[in-house]
Amino acid sequence: MASEMQLALVAGLLRRGRGLDLLSAAITLLALAYGLAPLLGISYSPAASILCSLLVMFGLAQKYWAIRVALDAELFTHLAADAPRLQERTGELDQALLQLGLQKTTAVSRDWDDRCRGALRLLRLQAAWLVAQLLLALATILATPWLSLAG
User: Which residue in 27, 54, 58, 99 has its CB near the most CB atoms, within 10 A?
Assistant: First the structure.
């Protein structure tokens, strides 16, 4: 059984996903703006369009995981505030997830240690998509002078 402190700690870690999401959103919007620049009459580069498309796709993948992390952060915060009734609240949570179709009917109720590990795994996946997006953006910035020399 997870303690109130463990649930609060996991909730705090999951809330850090918000900052990751904001950084990814900024990169995604910049890539989208740069990718749409040809509509304003700015010169067109097929390589830049492909890179911008990849940055936007990475940003959308990160956004998916960010939504899941944010939901878990809220749930963990809510449950940490009512830790003495955690066993009862766990049953209510599982029932609500089942009714909303967010949990498989065959899923066995997991203990809170497994749930904490699963929630932190989602945060790592969100961070991995952001890192992929950042690496692609950095590679694009570093390769731009070389691409202009080749073309």
Answer: 58
pTM score, whole prediction: 0.88
Name every residue whose Cβ is closer than 8 Å to that of residue 99 and which is 6 or more positions away in sequence.
Answer: none
CA distance 50 to 86: 49
Q: Are 80 and 4 in contact (CB under 8 A)?
A: yes
Q: How far apart (Å, rounded) are the C-alpha atoms in residues 45 and 58?
A: 20
pLDDT tens digits, one per residue of 93-124: 888 988 998 888 766 678 899 999 999 999 99
Supply angle C-alpha 94, 95, 96, rounded to 5: 90
Burial of 135 (0-12, 13-18, 19+ CB in 10 A): exposed
Question: Residues 45-101: pLDDT tens digits?
Answer: 788 889 999 999 999 999 999 999 999 999 999 999 988 898 899 889 888 988 998
**Alpha carbon 64 to chain centroid distance?**
6
Q: Domain map of the chain by residue range?
A: 4-84+111-150
